[in-house]
């Protein structure tokens, strides 16, 4: 058994499950809110309050697993797609660090990692295309402190983008589209992923007005506008075709109305993400896609 903890802006999503390399069997799910100012780009700045609230909800839900997988889905993670020369694997981390620091003007206080995406050709040469990821050392240390206070055995600190990459890796939905936009609808935030010919191309973060401060109609209208901007941007890409699809996940209560609005207003095929074939157990909810993806060890 394992516990996946997704930390969003102002929300924590919990999934307790049995996880293997090929399947996730959900036992329990739960989510709750916390004061949004507790988490910033520098990490969890109120580890005492954050830990206390997490323990409280774990007790109330009778969640006892201590083997924890943490997914970060907020502004403390910085992403950058990089093309690197084809070198030995042991040299890639240094190249990633050098390129990230140069491109984004990062300081040595950042911890960096990467996810291999694919190989690309440029000017007659082949390059490794990777997704660079950076977090402040203080942010990582704050997560370690929370894990210690909650007596959790921390296994992995993952990012939401890597979680989605794993979740859709073998999904035919992605492979069958020339261009696919995945929209992850959160409370106050919208994350958009663009796939081309089954390959991850890029992602964009959009800050929204908080769900609690807006009506459903206003939220949906804003989300549709942001999806339309990604659609228009996709036409500027080299691949840019009329064969586009939109797949929705995130806050379940909004998805059906959002699907209807995207289909009618943008005239694009749109559907709600179906339960992945490797997910079993209790009723599936789309709001937990990142927490589920974090449990996959691919």
What distinguishing features does this structure have?
about 300 residues; alpha/beta; Nucleotidyltransferase, domain 5; Dna Ligase, domain 1; five-stranded mixed β-sheet; 8 helices
Structure description:
The protein has 298 residues and is of the alpha/beta class. The protein folds into three domains: 2-75 and 138-163, Nucleotidyltransferase, domain 5; 78-136, Dna Ligase, domain 1 (2-Layer Sandwich); 172-275, Nucleotidyltransferase, domain 5 (2-Layer Sandwich), CATH 3.30.420. The chain contains eight helices and 16 strands. The protein has helices at 47-60, 92-104, 137-149, 160-168, 172-175, 216-235, 252-266, 289-295; strands at 2-7, 11-19, 24-33, 39-40, 43-44, 67-72, 78-85, 110-122, 125-136, 153-159, 179-185, 189-196, 199-207, 244-250, 269-272, 279-281. The strands form four sheets. The protein has a six-stranded mixed beta sheet with strand order 10-6-1-2-3-16, with helices on both faces. Strands 13-12-11-14-15 form a five-stranded mixed beta sheet, with helices on one face. Strands 7-9-8 form a three-stranded antiparallel beta sheet. A hairpin with a 2-residue loop joins strand 8 (110-122) and strand 9. The radius of gyration is 19 Å and the shape is globular. It starts with a strand and ends with a helix.
Which CATH architecture of the largest domain? 2-Layer Sandwich
Q: What is the helix fraction of residues, given as a range?
A: 25-40%
Q: Regions with pLDDT < 50 over 5+ consecutive residues?
A: none
Helix-strand pattern: EEEEEHEEHEEHEHHEEEHEHEEH
Radius of gyration: 19 Å
What is the number of helical segments per DSSP (H or I, 4+ residues)?
Answer: 8
What's the overall average pLDDT, rounded? 90
Query: How far is it from the N-terminal to the C-terminal residue, by CA?
Result: 18 Å
The outline comes out as globular
Question: Got a strand count?
Answer: 16
What structural class do you assign from the helix and strand content?
alpha/beta
How is the biggest beta sheet arranged? 6 strands, mixed
């Amino acid at each position: 058994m394992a516990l996946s903890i997704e930390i969003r802006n102002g929300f924590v999503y919990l999934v307790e499950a049995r996880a293997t390399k090929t399947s996730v069997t959900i036992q329990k799910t739960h989510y709750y809110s916390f004061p949004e100012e507790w988490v910033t780009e520098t990490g969890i700045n109120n580890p005492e309050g954050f830990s206390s609230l997490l323990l409280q909800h774990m007790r109330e839900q009778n969640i006892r697993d201590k083997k924890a997988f943490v997914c970060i889905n907020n502004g403390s993670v910085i992403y950058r797609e990089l093309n690197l020369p084809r070198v030995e694997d042991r040299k890639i981390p240094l190249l990633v660090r050098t390129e990230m620091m140069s491109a984004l003007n990062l300081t040595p206080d950042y911890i960096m990692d990467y996810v291999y995406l694919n190989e690309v050709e440029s000017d007659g040469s082949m390059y490794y295309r990777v997704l660079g990821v950076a977090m402040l050392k203080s942010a990582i240390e704050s997560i370690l402190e929370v894990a210690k206070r909650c007596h959790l055995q921390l296994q992995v600190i993952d990012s939401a983008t890597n979680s989605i990459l794993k979740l859709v890796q073998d999904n035919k939905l992605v492979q069958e589209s020339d261009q696919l936009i995945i929209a992850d609808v959160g409370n106050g935030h919208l994350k958009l992923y663009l796939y081309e010919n089954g390959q991850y191309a890029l992602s964009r973060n959009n800050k929204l007005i908080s769900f609690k401060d807006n009506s459903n109609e206003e939220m949906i209208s804003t989300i549709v506008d942001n999806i339309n901007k990604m659609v228009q941007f996709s036409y500027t890409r080299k691949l840019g075709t009329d064969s586009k699809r939109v797949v929705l996940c995130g806050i379940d209560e909004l998805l059906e109305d959002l699907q209807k609005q995207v289909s009618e207003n943008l005239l694009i095929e749109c559907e709600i993400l179906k339960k992945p074939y490797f997910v079993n157990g209790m009723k599936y909810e789309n709001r937990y896609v990142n927490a589920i993806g974090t449990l996959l060890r691919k």
